[in-house]
Fold each of these.
Amino acid sequence: MRLQLTHPLFFPDIFPYPNSTAVTSLSGTFSNMDKITDKIAALPADASYFSLEFFPPKTTMGTTNLRARLDRMSRALRPLFITVTWGAGGSTASRSLELAELCQRDLGITTCLHLTCTNMNKALVDEALSAAKELGIRNILALRGDEPRGEYRDALEQRKDGEDEFVWAVDLVRYIRKHYGDFFCVGVAAYPEGHADGSHPAEQSLEHDLPYLVEKVQAGADFIMTQLFYDVEAYDKFERVLREHESGLFKKMPIIPGLMPIQSYQILKRTAKLSNARLPESITDRLDAVRGDDEMVKKVGVDILSEIVESVKAIKSRTPGAKGFHFYTLNLEKAVAFILERSTLIPALTPTVSASSSFAIDDIRGGAVPEFLINGEKKKTRRQSSVGSDPHNFVIVDREDAENFEATAAEAGIIKDGVNTRANTLAISEGEGTLGREATWDEYVLLSPSNCSTPFAFQGQTFFQ
Ligand SMILES: Cc1cc2nc3c(=O)[nH]c(=O)nc-3n(C[C@H](O)[C@H](O)[C@H](O)COP(=O)(O)OP(=O)(O)OC[C@H]3O[C@@H](n4cnc5c(N)ncnc54)[C@H](O)[C@@H]3O)c2cc1C
């Protein structure tokens, strides 16, 4: 099996979204097509797209694993862009920038760097922005952030220069516009159920946040990305209020709903609470019924999230323009891959793909694709334009004589009678085989039931299950 990095620099025609050939470089040639809003605007009005969020791992091993996973996910799932979180107060500054560099420059994925401003002095903000610019990153999610947690607080204290230059996210948006003009496409956060600010429990509402969201857009924000939610009615109200706002500011602005796949019962409960996201009874009832079985929780979670995507698509069809979704992946791929496939969010490759392109050669070993197999069953030929649009690169079969577009289990690195006994369409995205075996590592660390106080990162903070 040949595994090869399909970098858009080398194969610009096979990537799903128009990507200009003037790409990023340290010498300062930048492509406008790396701006998220330009990429969205270039999509057909009835298209859907999605983005994936990752946080920087703490260890070298974690980074190595994530690199392989990112490469695999970017090629198989084809997000419009990915985002990299920023630790509160700059606690992950260098690791966030390293991960963003890996994504933008090494893997060629349009990258959006989260940047918080509270507890960050001007020098730190400047360092981050100029490093991002140098790396060719054209997108910043401008956030206020929160107090850093204990483990980082002492180190960060020393960096503070006593100036409170940045209090709210709007201060960062203004700063970026003032010092970087239009170089960056700037996104801001919004909260369909109100921002969960512990200090203002009475003020957790969309109505409370709205004037400040207006301020952020007036200061120059280009798109909105939301807090995770499971209550579709709340999202419906949120989007309606924004679209119909008297200012007209939100009429056409991309509003990207944030969704978190359900990885475990505990993580769901914890993150929903932290995020002020209501869990409707219709959801908790289904999960309560299987809560003792981790695999079933994930499976039911995929059903739930796929249903949410469908409902949000219906809401979004009221407004012209492509329908976007942002997934908080927690650096895991399995659940999100299933949801994306179920919701048909994975984009087909452009019709310009030729069977002789390197991607096709690499993944289906050249030649036309007359038919392919799923679970041993012959399926009708997929259009060439959609070759590779499944979250896997080729069909894994349990025969020895694999055809052009098939791979034997051995070639795919599947242990005999091992991890993956059903040759299926999601083998790679399940983190199995040579491509993905190491990918289960994060999952183990994060979700192992015997590891119930393992840390996980969410929105720049480290939490414990
Ligand atoms: C999509 C997304 C990604 C995130 N990524 C990260 C991350 O990578 N790292 C991280 O640390 N955190 C992250 N967060 C969390 C975020 O930093 C926190 O939710 C933070 O508490 C608020 O940030 P904000 O940008 O929404 O702040 P703001 O827009 O400043 O709003 C914060 C709160 O203050 C209120 N407010 C705003 N302006 C004023 C004003 N002038 N006067 C009075 N009240 C005001 C708002 O209504 C809101 O309640 C993310 C959140 C989201 C939704």
Amino acid sequence: MTYIHKIDSDRCKGCGLCVTICPKHVLEISEKVNTKGYFPAFQARPEDCIKCALCCSMCPDVAITITGAEDADQTQQAASTEDNDG
Ligand code: SF4
Ligand code: SF4
């Protein structure tokens, strides 16, 4: 199982909480603005990421996700598992 760590830069408001919380110093704030005029976080050192998900939990805008993929070559993100209860 390969885990893919992704930041939706257009959701990010550049608050820096994820940069601060990351124990591996993977994240930094970009010098380029996103579509909303913020400086978004990005993976400056993705090879150091341990997929601990602290940044995902911390982000107030839910801009960071970690998804599991069976095969790293497959770029499928169509995991539509809706929970219909009731
Ligand atoms: S998953 Fe953990 S190690 Fe990876 S960027 Fe987020 S906080 Fe850092
Ligand atoms: S915590 Fe979320 S909104 Fe804040 S910089 Fe990180 S990704 Fe962007």
